[in-house]
Design a protein that fits this description.
Distance between the termini: 30 Å
Strand content: 5-15%
Largest sheet: 7 strands, parallel
Number of helices: 15
Radius of gyration: 22 Å
Strand order of the largest sheet: 3-2-4-1-5-6-7
Helix content: 40-55%
Shape: globular
């Protein structure tokens, strides 16, 4: 039974960058992975594309032939893909049991109320795929309460529309330290705690937000989100190995991959760590790493990398046990940040 991630989110949230990073990460841990581009406007993919919707229909062709703007052309192209389902079905069958990443267009209409993308996902599900929708959002939205509340509404609507196992992800979390300080700790935002505390900060954003006539509307929106109680967020710094591991663990739990068999008898340390849930990061860990102590930890990691390179240079020519030493270094990195999980890794010889 193949597994897949459906990567959705507004433009600029980092969908293609995520697909590229996740493809590289899965390849590094020994999980066979393919990327499918479903964005007819994406003509410069940074990842190796196993299947590209632009081989069927392109944004430029639709805009020229049907005299549509960019947004309308994307909607038309997805309807065209839905009507030519056989093309996508045959392409997916050619990927076998690969773990698939679907890089989707960024128009929010597609995952909030337009039916084509949803229908395509359901047809993919009928092929036997275990799907997880990943809704990516730039973490910049945390810096303005109005943006954060709007994102909560968008995420909630996408969850109800997609009707699939769903994770909301705050990307570019490593950039938070360069913005203005947040009024609350990170876990307030990731766990979507009592939103009424945000209302005074929202009123201070601008004279429009502070207008008393909007007070009732803002309160009603906050109460609506809290009544559903569905939205929460994972975090991601795509270039950080632990952050990618933490997100993949969450995806594996949501899609059921974590409850399957082992990837093999000779698993690497990273494969064991992923499967056993080692090195999971809480919101407090992310707060410390990327906000409170970012510069300090960056410097520590830089020095550790320099020491590792110096050690590697010093030990050149001694190839016996090099692979084991690399795995041991990785395990030490995991254990440095994680309490003892009780998992014992036994190497196969």
């Amino acid at each position: 039974m193949p597994f897949a991630q459906l990567v959705i989110g507004p433009p600029g949230s980092g969908k293609s960058t995520f697909c590229d990073g996740m493809h590289q990460f899965m390849s590094a841990i020994g999980r066979k992975c393919s990327v499918v581009n479903l964005d007819p406007a994406n003509d410069h993919t940074s990842y190796p594309c196993a299947l590209d919707v632009r081989d069927l229909v392109t944004l430029e062709e639709v805009m020229e032939d049907d005299q549509l703007g960019p947004n309308g052309a994307v909607l038309y192209a997805l309807e065209e893909l839905e009507h030519n389902w056989d093309w996508l079905e045959q392409g997916l069958k050619g990927l076998g049991e690969d773990y698939v990443l679907f890089d989707c267009p960024g128009q929010v209409e597609l995952f909030t109320h337009h039916s084509s993308l949803r229908n395509i996902f359901f047809r993919i599900q009928k092929l036997g795929y275990r799907l997880v929708a990943l809704h990516l959002t730039d973490s910049y939205i945390l810096t303005q309460p109005s943006l954060y509340i709007s994102t909560l509404l968008l995420s909630l609507r996408a969850m109800l529309q997609m009707d699939l196992p769903h994770l909301n992800v705050l990307t570019k979390i490593d950039n938070l330290s360069i913005y203005s300080p947040l009024p609350f700790n990170l876990d307030f935002y990731t766990e979507v705690q009592d939103l009424s505390y945000l209302l005074p900060h929202m009123a201070q954003e601008s004279s429009v937000m502070g207008n008393p006539k909007f007070e009732g509307l803002n309160t009603a929106i906050v109460e609506l989100i809290e009544d559903f109680g569905l939205v929460s967020f994972e975090t991601l710094a795509v270039e950080d190995k632990r952050s990618m591991m933490n997100l993949l663990q969450a995806v594996d739990r949501a899609g059921g991959y974590a409850f399957g068999g082992a990837e093999g008898a000779n698993d690497t340390v990273w494969q064991v760590a992923i499967r056993e849930g080692m090195s999971s990061m809480t919101a407090q860990d992310v707060q410390e790493r990327w906000i409170d102590r970012k510069e300090e930890i960056d410097e520590m990691e830089r020095k550790a990398l320099e020491e590792a390179k110096a050690k590697e240079t010093h030990s050149q020519g001694d190839v016996s046990g090099d692979d084991f030493e690399d795995d041991d270094d990785d395990m030490e990195e995991i254990q440095r940040h994680t309490p003892d999980s009780g998992v014992k890794v036994v190497r196969q010889t």
